[in-house]
C-alpha cells in the first residue's frame, strides 16, 4: 500500500453497484495510522495472525504466523514487529518482503468476543537489531510500519476453544521440538540446519 488511497476504482464500482458507498466512506473514517492502547492490547495478546504478501509481479501469498502471546509487539506509534521462527525454508513471505514490502496482517479472536483487526503497511526485515537478541527462537525480526489500521466486521467468526498451544512454540531454556516431517525419507537429506537463535 504505497498510496494513502483506501479504495480503488474496482472497490468503488462495486460499492456503487450495491449502494454501499456511504457506509464504505463511514468505515474509512475509522482507519488510522497509529495504534491505540486497545489495538496494542489485542495485538500483543494474539497467538497467531495471517500475513499476506506479494512478489515483485504482484503474485499473492498468504501465511499463518503463530507464537506465544506477546510474540507480536507494538514497538512504536505506527510500528509492530514479529519474529521469524524456523520453518520449512521456502521463505515465501519473507522472500516477497525482500522484493515487495507491501503487506497486510489480519488478527482474529476465535474465542471470547469475536474480533478482527487489519493492519496494512510496509515491512522490512531486521537481521541484527536488539529485539532479535531478546526474542526466544527468532532467526529474524519483521518490522511493519502501519499505513492503515482498521477494524473489520466479525459476524462470520466462529466461536472456538483453544485445546492446547503448539508444542513447537519456542520456550526459554528449552531446546526446540523438531517436527516429524524433517525426518521423512522424502525430505531428511535436504533439511537445512537450524540457525542460531536466542534461547533465553
What are the main properties of this structure?
single chain; 200 residues; alpha+beta; Pnp Oxidase, Chain A; 7-stranded antiparallel β-sheet; 4 helices; 7 strands; 28% strand; Pyridox_Oxase_N
Describe this structure in words.
- It comes from Caulobacter ginsengisoli.
- Residues 36-135 form the Pyridoxamine 5'-phosphate oxidase N-terminal domain.
- InterPro entries: Pyridox_Oxase_N (IPR011576), Split_barrel_FMN-bd (IPR012349).
- Pfam families: PNPOx_N.
- This is Pyridoxine 5'-phosphate oxidase superfamily flavin-nucleotide-binding protein.
- The protein has 200 residues and is α+β, with helices and mostly antiparallel strands.
- It has one domain (31-155, 165-183): Pnp Oxidase, Chain A (Roll).
- Helices cover 17% and strands 28% of the residues.
- The chain is built from four helices and seven strands.
- A seven-stranded antiparallel sheet has the order 2-1-5-6-7-4-3.
- The longest helix has 9 residues, at 9-17.
- It starts with 8 loop residues before the first helix and ends in a 49-residue tail after the last strand.
- The mean pLDDT is 94.
Write a concise synopsis of the structure shown.
This protein is 17% helix and 28% strand.
How many helices? The count is 4
Oligomerization status of the protein chains: single chain
- Helix/strand/pairing category: alpha+beta
User: What is the radius of gyration?
Assistant: 18 Å
CATH topology: Pnp Oxidase, Chain A
Mean pLDDT over all positions: 94
State the end-to-end CA separation: 36 Å
What would you call the shape? globular
Structure summary, number of beta strands = 7
CATH class wording? Mainly Beta
CATH architecture: Roll
- The percent of residues in helical segments reads 10-25%
Protein name: Pyridoxine 5'-phosphate oxidase superfamily flavin-nucleotide-binding protein
Domain Pyridoxamine 5'-phosphate oxidase N-terminal: 36-135
Pfam families: PNPOx_N
InterPro entries: Pyridox_Oxase_N, Split_barrel_FMN-bd
Amino acid at each position: 500500500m504505497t498510496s494513502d488511497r483506501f479504495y480503488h476504482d474496482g472497490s468503488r464500482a462495486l460499492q456503487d453497484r450495491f449502494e454501499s458507498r456511504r457506509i464504505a466512506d463511514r468505515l474509512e473514517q475509522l482507519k488510522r495510522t497509529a495504534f491505540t492502547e486497545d489495538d496494542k492490547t489485542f495485538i500483543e495478546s494474539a497467538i497467531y495472525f495471517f500475513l499476506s504478501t506479494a512478489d515483485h509481479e504482484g503474485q499473492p501469498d498468504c501465511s499463518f504466523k503463530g507464537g506465544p502471546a506477546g510474540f507480536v509487539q507494538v514497538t512504536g506509534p505506527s510500528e509492530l514487529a514479529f519474529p521469524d521462527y524456523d520453518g520449512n525454508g521456502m521463505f515465501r513471505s519473507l522472500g516477497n518482503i525482500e522484493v515487495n514490502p507491501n503487506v497486510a496482517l489480519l488478527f482474529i479472536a476465535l474465542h471470547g468476543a469475536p474480533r478482527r483487526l487489519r493492519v496494512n503497511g510496509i515491512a522490512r526485515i531486521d537481521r541484527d537489531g536488539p529485539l532479535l537478541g531478546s526474542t526466544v527462537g527468532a532467526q529474524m525480526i519483521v518490522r511493519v510500519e502501519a499505513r492503515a489500521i482498521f477494524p473489520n466486521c466479525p459476524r462470520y467468526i466462529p466461536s472456538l476453544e483453544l485445546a492446547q498451544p503448539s508444542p513447537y512454540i519456542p520456550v526459554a531454556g528449552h531446546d526446540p521440538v523438531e517436527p516429524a516431517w524433517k525426518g521423512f525419507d522424502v525430505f531428511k537429506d535436504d533439511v537445512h540446519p537450524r540457525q542460531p537463535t536466542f534461547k533465553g
